[in-house]
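Cross-check.
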Amino acid sequence: MQAKKNIVVMGAGYGGITAALRLARLFHKHHDYQIHLIDRNPYHTLKTQLHEAAIRKTEVTIPIDRIIQRRNILFHLGEVTRIDSATQTIFMGSKSLSFHYLAIALGSQVNFHNIPGLRENSFPLQTLSDAQLIYDYITRLCARVVSESSENRRRDMLRFVIGGGGLSGVEFAAELAEHVVQCTHNSHVNPHEVEIIVVVSGSRVVPRMDESFSTRIYKKLIEKGIKIVSETKIVSRTADTVTLSSGKVLRTKTVIWAGGIRIQELARRSGMKIGQLGRIIVDTFLKVEGYPTIYAIGDNALAVNPCSKEAVPAAAQFALQQGRLAANNIYADIFGGMRKPYHPKLLGEVVGLGRHLAVGWFALPFFEKITFVGFLGSLLKAAVQGKHIFLLRKESGKWITY
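Predicted model, tokenized:
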């Protein structure tokens, strides 16, 4: 019996899970092909909602076996340690798997930028376990502050520093601001002893959005009592202090780090060409440069917008688009079809500022867009999050609940 040809997807994030499901649909009648999906976790994480899990313990994962049930997908729980492009083989420790085509969608890791003491004395927010650690820590902190008689020590305990004014840092800060109101009320602590500080390296928060939206977000954060320190960086961290580039030293027990990402070194070690932030250089079809049977998508791919000539941001909506396109192009490669170049579509942007508040916009036909702020925005953000579940349902051919 002839061995099946393996199409392997590394990573079950937004791009990877979408690519695997689309491949399973495309190849469902081609029984000589087998789709494989590899991830270190047995679940798909809704990373855009991690800040909610860190504060409210919201459920943000979907079991992979539920998503791929009755699909032509074999799931491997593990971590790829090496890619041998010459023999078209990947290695997971002592195990190996040959591939006919490969899609790299490993996501990203936290970048501490070699800031002294930051890795050891801060909480990143990049994975489910990060969110769980933060939730447990803040829960214990709220319980401990009740019995602290010293106001100065209480203030140190209730001073939260968030490094990074991008989407993750801003959404976490807004959720935290709402949570500590309840925390201090339950603990009979003066709410004015709470201080939430967002340290922003640039001139404004969420800089990838239009300046008008950035200004709106800034104003809403200020209304929530959050302090924004712009054009400043964290330069060192100890267990009790944060030193800023301005020279100011903040006393704090809690630093949440949302100041950047980096890509795993696996692709570099495997000889692939690497660009900024360690992302893999790909062509207009998302194929890895110099490797005719390997694609890269999501955070891993240094995809370029053909209109602006700029790198496409690492964002969930682009990873979803790239996952579908890479699957379609792999199918076209194998069966002689026409591959399509990647043209990113910015469908909208939504920034959640707590449970019942959001700011953002959605694209409309004829280059128009609708903007929103407030409770309506929170409803639309919930709709955006629900859309991903709907698309997973569509790709898998069944309803998914979590």
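The two ends are 39 Å apart (CA to CA). The longest strand covers residues 33-39. Passed to J.P. for a second look.
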